[in-house]
Design brief:
Elements lengths: L1 H6 L3 H8 L6 E4 L5 H10 L3 E2 H9 L24 E3 L21 E4 L5 H6 L5 E5 L6 H8 L3 E7 L3 H14 L2 H6 L2 E4 L6 H4 L4 E7 L5 H6 L11 H21 E11 L8 H15 L3 E3 L3 H7 L13 E3 L10 E8 L2
Parallel strand pairs: 5-6, 5-8, 6-7, 8-9
Antiparallel strand pairs: 1-3, 1-4, 2-3, 9-12, 10-12, 11-12
Helix pairs in contact: 11-12
Length: 335
Amino acid sequence: MTYSVQFGDLWPSIRVSLLSEQKYGALVNNFAAWDRVSAELEQLSARDFVNEAIFHGEPEPESGQTAAPPPASWACSPNLRCFTFARGDVSRFPPARLGSLGVMDYYLMDAASLLPVLALGLQPGDTVLDLCAAPGGKTLALLQTGCCRNLAANDLSTSRAGRLQKVLHSYVPQDVRDRNRVRVTSWDGRKWGELEGDIYDRVLVDVPCTTDRHSLHEEENNIFQRSRKKERQMLPMLQVQLLAAGLLATKPGGHVVYSTCSLSHLQNEYVVQGTIELLANQYDIKVHVEDLTHFRKLFMDTFSFFPSCQVGELVIPNLMANFGPMYFCKMCRMT
């Protein structure tokens, strides 16, 4: 009932897609023999949607002129390779396997989950915080960029942090984990602004949410159970507290990406707008929301985007491109 009001004519298509089999992407592990892995994925007729989009998205220079470089805020996080099957192709990737270098070849994930990491626009030498890091796909992607001077990966749940550790051990060699100074913690993310304020160049705040697709297919511990009603109603407040903590942990001039895998504007745009107001009023901190229109255009061949978000971008499930839902919004802390 809620989503039919929010999405109108688009809802029947979104609903049937949510109930259908999800599409995956294969994130190539750069710590494996990535060139061989990429060649094998190409043989399956999969394509690297990231580099294809970036290559086609480069502005064409007009005759006799050199193309003006795009604004720095447009830059995607580098070195990420993720293969997907074309629109309408519902082929499945074989399970990932252990490669010759002792780490797994690729990581299967909803390809839309890579968009928040791409949008964060990591630069070499960045100090990075992943505030709600488990189960670990986005943390792994952050490490794949090769940009993290330090990476703090946090998840309040110790069991979920354990899953994150498992992913890092399977995909990232020990010396890289040590060299990148990857620190896995299980602290209360809401307190991060007090613990480590004004420290990070880039922060990913991928908050707990109603996990709409997962909730439709999973009975156990479902957030829509009657017994969890209060918890569900409190989610937007928790999300505001986590995003506020992420922004407070960021240096002035640093960037934050907020993301969820929910369709609900109460958990998406409203949280972003509420948090920006809160920081302005309580901390006198100005936050600027970045326009991601160029980013949507870059990836619209692979994903279906909701055309009318107030702030940020939302990938909506579509039978031809059954990724998402995935909401993400990029912000710059100005002061």
